Structure formats: structure tokens, C-alpha cells
Amino acid sequence: MRLDNITQHVITVLVENKPGVLARVSTMFARRGFNIHSLTVGPTADPTMSRMTVVADLPEMEQITKQLYKLINTVKVTEHAPGTAVEREIMLLRVNSEPKRRGEILDAARIFNATAVDVGRSTVTFELTGDPAQLADFLEMMKPYGIVDLVKSGRIALARDPKNKNGRRAELRTA
């Protein structure tokens, strides 16, 4: 997405798992006036490290990368160009569900592999995990029924696995 010279970037930042790191990273973005669309943090396979995924409107990456590396707990910064990472979000969506339309709503949700996680007298709450476009499409499909409530996690991203010469993903070898 582009607005003038501002582009939405997806960045992962590998950081030491220490108190205050999240505050320092988010403050760095805020001081420069950059809008963060989502920021998620979670553990990695190494318990001493955390991975942050930041989706933000930025004019350019070079300066942001330099600023992130200046933060003492930053280990690695990766910008993910479109299509180079597996990206996922989770969404909980509560829609109006009159009993006579409930079957229709559940059928529509099945197309997206959404799971009904709560059924009330007049609403159904769905859980859906997928890429941001899939969640947006599901949300659009449910709008005619009436959106009651919505919450989405921040986006998480992991670089795609490198491919071998044949263009196929490397296979896991077992001993």
C-alpha cells in the first residue's frame, strides 16, 4: 500500500527477551511519527530471544533499520517484501444470527474454514486464522448479516523457507 512517499512495511525484529525492549522499539517508531498498524511480540525457539513483527507506514527502510540496530537488544532486522514471508492473523468476529439464517451463515463461514466458537441466542462468534486478505474477505462476506463485534491480533510473519534449484522447498531429512 502506498500513500505519497509512505509505504506499508512488514518488519521482523529479533531481540533479546528482556524487560523494556518492546517499549524502546515502539517509542522509537512513535518519536519519528510513524503509524504502527500492528505490533506483535512472541517467544522464539530460543527462550532468550523474542520476535517482533511490526506493520507500519514508513517512508523508507534504511533509516529505520539503522535506528533499530542502535537499540542495544536488537539482534536482527528483516524487512519482508510482499510474498517473501508467511503472514498470519487471527480474528474473532461476532455476527448477528437470526435462527432462520443461522445455517446460511455457518455455510458461508465454512468456505473460509472459520470455526464457530460461541453461539448465542442472536449471534455467532467465529474464529478465523489466515493471511490478512483472507480475513478481510471473510469480514466483507459477513457484513450483510451485521457485525456486532470484532477483534484481530497483530500480524505475525516468518520468512519463507529457501527453495532449492528446482524451485521446490527443501525436504526435512530424518536420521
Describe the structure.
This protein has 175 residues and is of the alpha+beta class. It has helices at 21-31, 61-70, 102-111, 132-142; strands at residues 2-3, 6-16, 36-43, 49-58, 74-80, 85-96, 115-119, 123-130, 147-152, 156-159. The strands form 2 sheets. Strands 1, 2, 3, 4 and 5 form a 5-stranded antiparallel sheet that branches. Strands 6, 7, 8, 9 and 10 form a 5-stranded antiparallel sheet that branches. A hairpin with a 5-residue loop joins strand 3 (36-43) and strand 4. The chain is elongated and about 60 Å long. It starts with a strand and ends in a 16-residue tail after the last strand.
In CATH terms, what is the fold-level topology of the largest domain? Alpha-Beta Plaits
Q: How many E strands?
A: 10
Flag low-confidence runs: none
On the 0 to 100 scale, the average pLDDT is: 90
Largest sheet report: 5 strands, antiparallel
- The tally of helices reads 4
Provide the CATH superfamily of the largest domain: ACT domain
Assembly state here? Answer: single chain
Task: Give the CATH architecture of the largest domain.
Answer: 2-Layer Sandwich
Q: Name the helix and strand elements from N-terminus to C-terminus, one letter apiece.
A: EEHEEHEEHEEHEE
Shape: elongated
Provide the descriptors you would attach to this structure in a database record.
single chain, 175 residues, alpha+beta, Alpha-Beta Plaits, five-stranded antiparallel β-sheet, 4 helices, elongated
